[in-house]
What we know:
Blueprint: H1 3-30, E1 39-43, E2 50-54, E3 67-71, H2 88-97, E4 103-107, E5 137-139, H3 142-145, H4 155-165, E6 170-173, E7 177-182, H5 185-205, H6 216-226, H7 229-242
Parallel strand pairs: 5-6
Antiparallel strand pairs: 1-2, 1-4, 2-3, 4-7, 6-7
Helix pairs in contact: 1-5, 2-4
Amino acid sequence: MPDDLSRRYDDAVLDAALTELVIANRILAREDVIDDFGHVSIRNPLNPERYFLSRSRSPAVVTRGDIMEFTLDGEKVSDDPRRPYAERHIHGAVYKDRPDVNAVTHHHARSVLPFTMCGVPLRPMFHMASVIGRDIAVWDSQDEFGDTNMLVDSMAMGHSLARVLGGNRVALLRGHGCICVADSLRAVVMISIALRDNAALIQATRPMGEITYLTDGEIERSSAMLLSAMPLARAWDYWVARAGFAGL
């Protein structure tokens, strides 16, 4: 491929990725998953040793100009003077420890928070939530770091969290929130929304009686179907329209 054509191709790839990242911020805010302090990132599709994340700003108002690039150690690639998220180390540590992950969310969805502080499992109970996966562990910063400000604001804490996440799609943070990871931005948005919905449904169902959770086989087969190209495209179109970007 000629150099100029290659550059145009790379520019188009980055443009599409960054546009989707801005829209993902708006979608997750619109769907009441990410609040004023959550964030979502993507691995640089042209350089796996870097990732893109907004500057420290509410996701509901993130624009293309807010997006910054970081090394996996959380260092700014440019001399941009604006303040980054203190918890960017969540993203860098996960990308370092999980080469299969290309998108990460950290959020504090209120329906999820009770499950970070009690022994009730957050296992999928309906088929759309199968994408959150079978195993969801809880990371407690007290175990390694004692009393903190509860933020994951160092690479040491990020790697500690990544170890608890393991090979799974979701991990909970005791008294704080959760992280969701996936191989694509659209997939991590689906997982984040499904986690919120599953948590709310468990809380609504428990007063009615014992919950019948999905089996391991149901989780595996349903999630493989839902995370395939057609369901992800259909769901993405729906969320894009609700976020006010229909027609893009």
